[in-house]
Specification:
The protein is of the alpha+beta class. Helices cover about 30% and strands about 35% of the residues. It has a 7-stranded antiparallel sheet. The termini are far apart.
C-alpha cells in the first residue's frame, strides 16, 4: 500500500457536464465540500475560503488551482490536514489533488480522485495527514455524489 498517494473513485448517476459543474463551480464545490469560497477557480491563483464543516469553522481553506481541462481534469495543490492555526504550513511542499471525469456506458460519470505527494510532508505529521485525508476523501466522494443527486 502506497503512503504517498490516495486514490478513490465513484460512479455518479449524472452526465459528465453536471458532475463537472459541481466540481469546478466554486459555489457548488463549496456546498458539497463544505467550504465558503471567496471567488471562482482560476488556474495559477489561490482559492480561499473558510471551512464550514462542523468543528472546523475557524479554519481557512486554501488551494492553488493548477489545471482545468473542461469536463475532463481539475487539479489543485494544498497543504493536507493543515488544521493548526498556529502553524505556518507555507514552507511545506503541497500535495497535488487531481480529479478525472469519464463518461460511463450508462450515461453517468466515473469520477476518479488522487492526492499525491504525502512522502514530502514532514515526518511529524505525514501519517496523520495521510490517514485523515484518506478518510476525508472517502466522505467527500460520497458528498459530491449525493449533492449531484439532490441538485440535478
Amino acid at each position: 500500500m502506497s503512503t504517498d498517494r490516495i486514490e478513490k473513485q465513484i460512479e455518479i448517476a449524472a452526465p459528465v457536464s453536471r458532475v463537472w459543474r459541481a466540481l469546478t463551480d466554486y459555489r457548488e464545490f463549496g456546498a458539497w465540500f463544505r467550504v465558503n469560497l471567496e471567488a471562482p477557480f482560476t488556474v495559477g491563483e489561490e482559492a480561499r475560503g473558510m471551512i464550514t464543516w462542523p468543528g472546523y469553522e475557524h479554519l481557512p481553506w486554501r488551494a492553488v488551482i493548477q489545471q482545468i481541462d473542461p469536463e475532463q481534469y481539475f487539479a489543485f495543490t494544498w497543504h493536507p490536514y493543515a488544521i493548526d492555526p498556529n502553524v505556518d504550513y507555507s514552507e511545506e511542499v503541497p500535495t497535488l489533488v487531481e480529479f478525472r471525469l469519464e463518461p460511463t456506458a450508462s450515461g453517468g460519470t466515473l469520477l476518479r480522485l488522487s492526492e499525491s505527494g504525502f512522502d514530502d510532508i514532514p515526518d511529524a505529521r505525514r501519517g496523520e495527514a495521510f490517514l485523515r485525508n484518506d478518510g476525508g476523501w472517502t466522505q467527500q466522494m460520497t458528498n459530491i455524489r449525493d449533492y449531484v443527486a439532490e441538485h440535478p
